[in-house]
Design brief:
By secondary structure, the protein is α/β, with parallel strands linked by helices. Helices cover 47% and strands 12% of the residues. The chain is built from 35 helices and 24 strands. It starts with a strand and ends in a 5-residue tail after the last helix.
């Protein structure tokens, strides 16, 4: 045991508590007296069980120590209370950086830094003191919050004398600003954006970025000069020309190599068009990470936060926002169970500080979900479409409605593919307005986004979800509001409509209820839907090659086992009994809008319109798709579609059973619903075209994957090469002597390559099981070398937070799968090595088989694989000074896939020994 430096003094006396920081295989315990003890994890477990230490991310610490419950002072909870909505990595080092306490290296330094964070946070709380904050702290202290006494002392408040009797502090719904209705928005004009003007606006943005970077306190490099960026901005400006024919939008397919700076490149003409024409441009991304990045880039265009709030809006699906009515109902439970006040108190602090109320991305810390649980965080969103709109007492303060109204008058709306495409599939946006100009960034993902949006699935989970949407929480459990509560007052006074509402509630009993999965497994299904699903399950298990496997199972629907076709027809008739009163209710509500047009006030009209949209989206469209699949089951699948049966499994456990229908080419409905009605569309990515080496074939692949082949007018093609010198900045190695099916060999390769690079490695895997097996084998040797290993699917934080930690820790390594490959943007030395476990061939499932036949056999597989490799390689070099090595551990890598890599890159086939030596020499020549 050794003595540590004394803690920094504070005006507020911090509680005298020990500090616990975990490494990979050891822990550091800092006593309240300032003594440091180094422990193994088992000893740390025993000590943490006996005392309540100060930690960062208590849930993660408890899992690492294999403790079911850990009584601890979590510094992240104190940070969330003190600095709501502010960025912080959920680690001791992250907390220190967020508070300006320096950057710790060793576990001992981290422990002392964590101890120093407490007085700093308590000092800040003292400076924030208000009566409302004190009342909130009193509620949380009454819930046995470990920080309660210290926070109350900092605020100069006394604990509550008994149980809470009112919700002061939690009543955020009464303190948020209200929005006001405005008049209708005029349609935009049609003035074009000249290429020269686009270049001029781009120059302004780049200069603004340079000023921003030069004045930033985080050491960000100044904006780099990119002449290709101006060429790109000029090319995409063609999408902002006036539309010449009704069904011929100005469609631009623009491939911009990594480093071109396409975000500012398309924002230049987009912002000009919006200003000149008084209409919004919708910028859509696939990943939330890019959505946040674009929002940050727009600070250059609108440096005044108030002006930016008017001109820029981030839009996400309704299920991504905090629902104030859900929050109020959850808050009411505090009076009966004060322990609920802790999590809800932290949510209240964030809700009063947030920019837009979005629970996914933005300023909501992903780690808070793990600290307080999903029920008190993500579970407070309207995830099942149960909104009661203007009947809600908090409607005028609603985060979602505020976002919708701001978007009507914004210049730039930053959305995501899922929102844009799902809304198109269901018939328009929440406010029934349709944008005329789109920019689809990460355009290489449009195919899979459209595939998800325009597909149908009749499964136990989806049917049970519809039942819950109709009936609400049955048995008095939960907050879910059923149709009776949402629509009863809208049909009051009309006997026929009231009868229809009651008929819907009665008919919903045909849908699977609680325990449906157990009943299927036991052979005791109820009602026609469950009986149909039981036979689906039987057919899948009968025909699966390995029914005992832990992964998902699937089989073709034809030829059907005995009784399946008849069960499908019975299920169809049961759904018809539910569909009929829903259609009559929709007709009645539409009739009210027409016949009572002069009498209905705005709030009631809004509610009726919203009710019609909800019924059509959640029930009418869904039921029509389900019934179509059931009626088609005895015969051939409609042309252009593919159907199959499946059992979904999670960790080896069955979770769903269903019938699926997908378009073979989902860009066909995408082009019809989104592109053709628009006036101008930009589809852009660093990887739009294929890498065959034949320009014509490459562009044909781009047009097929984006839906351009289904648009009447030909797309404008633009390709701007990367400014990076890949030949000198990168090395690309294919390892030929590692057996990819031998995980001991694969793990040894990862270990030696990561050690050779000294960290900064991203390990990509084609299967979660392979990732976990490799992690287990390399964790200890990397720890011995002082290299932290982060792992998706293992570490208890979301992917975005993992990437943030990886970015901040220059010598850490990260293991991940597809979500990491697509979401990483890590410039500099934090990412200097990428190791791919094997060639990422597409999974040969039923859907892929149908598309392979339609799109071109082996060439289709090659195209998809080259795309994944191009995306992975594109993560390596993010700015001019970067260097990196890309390694593929697959001796079966065919040379026809080499087109996935940039021109000039020398792809060498080497043994592991040479790959390790080359990696070390290229990335760490000083170590030679």
């Amino acid at each position: 045991m050794t003595s540590a430096a004394p803690l920094k003094p504070s005006r507020i006396l911090a509680p005298e508590i020990p500090v616990l920081v975990l490494g990979t295989r050891r822990a550091v315990w800092l006593t309240a007296d300032g003594e440091i003890d180094t422990l193994d994890l088992r000893a740390a477990q025993r000590r943490a069980r006996d005392e309540a230490p100060l930690v960062a991310h208590g849930r993660a610490v408890a899992r690492r120590l294999e403790l079911r419950d850990l009584r601890a002072f979590d510094a992240l909870e104190l940070f969330a209370f003190t600095c709501p909505g502010q960025f912080c990595l959920p680690t001791p080092r992250g907390l220190m950086m967020a508070l300006g306490l320096g950057r710790a290296g060793s576990l001992e330094d981290q422990a002392m830094g964590l101890a120093d964070s407490v007085p700093v946070l308590l000092d800040r709380i003292q400076r924030q003191a208000t009566p409302i904050l004190a009342e909130l702290a009193q509620l949380m202290a009454a819930g046995d919050w470990p920080w309660g006494p210290a926070v109350l002392a900092a605020l100069g408040a006394a604990p509550l004398p008994g149980r809470p009797r009112r919700l002061s502090g939690l009543d955020i719904w009464s303190r948020l600003p209200e929005w006001e209705e405005a008049g209708p928005v005029e349609p935009p004009s049609h003035y074009p954006v000249d290429p020269a003007d686009a270049r001029g606006r781009l120059a302004e943005l780049v200069q603004g970025r340079a000023r921003h970077d030069a004045s930033s306190a985080n050491g960000a490099p100044a904006a780099e000069a990119r002449p290709q960026q101006a060429d790109y901005a000029s090319a995409v400006s063609a999408a902002f020309a006036p539309k010449a024919a009704p069904d011929e939008p100005n469609l631009v397919l623009a491939e911009a190599g990594t480093g071109v700076g396409k975000t500012l490149g398309y924002l230049a003409p987009a912002s000009l068009w919006a200003e000149r024409n008084g209409g919004p441009v919708w910028v859509s991304t696939f990943t939330r990470n890019l959505q946040t990045q674009i929002d940050g880039e727009l600070d250059r265009l609108y440096p005044d936060p108030r002006l930016k709030a008017e001109r820029v809006v981030l839009r996400k699906g309704r299920e991504n926002y905090l629902c104030l009515l859900n929050f109020e109902e959850a808050a009411q439970t505090v009076l009966g169970n004060p322990a609920n006040a802790v999590g809800l108190g932290l949510m209240a602090r964030w809700a009063m500080a947030t920019k837009d109320g979005a629970l996914v991305g933005g300023d909501f810390p992903g780690w808070l979900v793990d600290l307080i649980g999903r029920a008190q965080s993500l579970g407070l969103a309207d995830r099942r479409g149960e909104c009661i709109y203007s009947a809600c007492p908090h409607y005028s303060r609603c985060f979602i409605e505020h976002s919708i109204r701001r978007a009507r008058r914004a210049d730039i709306v930053v959305a995501n593919h899922a929102l844009v495409l799902v809304q198109a599939a269901l018939g328009g946006l929440d406010d029934a307005t349709v944008p005329t100009r789109y920019v689809f960034d990460e355009g290489h993902h449009l195919f899979e986004a459209a595939d998800s949006a325009f597909s149908a699935q009749l499964s136990g989970l989806s049917a049970a979800d519809l039942r819950r949407w109709i009936l609400g929480a049955e048995g008095g459990a939960g907050r879910a509001r059923g149709m009776r509560r949402r629509y009863e007052d809208l049909v009051a006074g009309d006997d026929a409509a009231t009868d229809d509402l009651q008929a819907i509630l009665v008919s919903a009993a045909v849908l699977p209820g609680d325990g449906w999965l157990h009943r299927l497994a036991e052979g005791e299904p109820r009602h026609p839907i469950e009986k149909f699903l039981a036979l689906v399950r039987q057919q899948v298990l009968a025909r699966a090659q390995r029914p005992e496997a832990n992964y998902d199972l699937e089989t073709e629907r034809q030829p059907a086992i005995e009784g399946l076709a008849e069960a499908a027809l019975e299920a169809d008739q049961a759904l018809a009994g539910l569909e009929a009163p829903i259609l009559r209710l929709v007709k009645y509500l539409a009739k009210r809008l027409d016949e009572e047009a002069e009498e209905l006030d705005t709030a009631v009209r809004t509610r009726i319109e919203a009710a019609i949209r909800s019924l059509e989206r959640r029930a009418v469209i869904t039921l029509a798709a389900w019934r179509a699949m059931l009626k088609d089951l005895p015969q051939a699948t409609p042309e252009g579609m593919v159907d199959w049966l499946s059992i979904s499994r999670q960790d080896g456990r069955e979770v769903d059973v269903g019938l699926h229908r997908h378009w073979i080419d989902p860009t066909e409905p995408f082009a019809k619903a989104v592109v053709t009605p628009a006036h101008g569309v930009v589809v852009t990515s660093a990887t739009l075209t294929d890498g065959t080496g034949d320009a014509g074939v490459d562009w044909q692949a781009a047009e097929a994957r984006t839906g351009a082949v289904h648009v009447a007018a030909p797309a404008i093609r633009a390709r701007v090469p990367s400014p990076f010198d890949y030949a000198n900045q990168t090395r690309c190695l294919v390892v030929t002597d590692v057996r990819k099916d031998d995980l001991d060999q694969v793990a040894a390769a990862y270990r030696e390559l990561f050690l050779a690079a000294g960290g900064g490695g991203l390990g990509l895997f084609t299967a979660i099981s392979r990732l976990k097996a490799v992690r287990e084998r390399i964790l200890a040797p990397l720890d011995d070398a002082g290299i932290e290993l982060l792992s998706q699917h293992v570490d208890p934080v979301d992917v975005g937070t993992l990437i943030d930690i990886f970015r901040a820790e220059e010598d850490a390594c990260l293991l991940g799968t597809d979500a990491v490959r697509d979401g990483v943007d890590v410039p500099g030395r934090s990412l200097r090595l990428i190791v791919f476990d094997r060639v990422p061939w597409p999974r040969p499932d039923i859907l892929h088989k149908a598309r392979r036949q339609d799109f071109g056999s082996r060439g289709y597989d090659d195209m998809l694989t080259r795309l994944k490799l191009r995306q992975a390689f594109g993560r390596l070099i993010r700015r001019a000074g970067d260097q990196g090595v890309f390694v593929l551990l697959d001796p079966m890598m065919p040379s026809r896939l080499y087109g996935a890599f940039p021109e000039g890159v020398d792809i060498r086939r080497v043994g592991l020994k040479e790959a390790v030596e080359e990696t070390k020499y290229f990335l760490r020549p000083e170590a030679e």
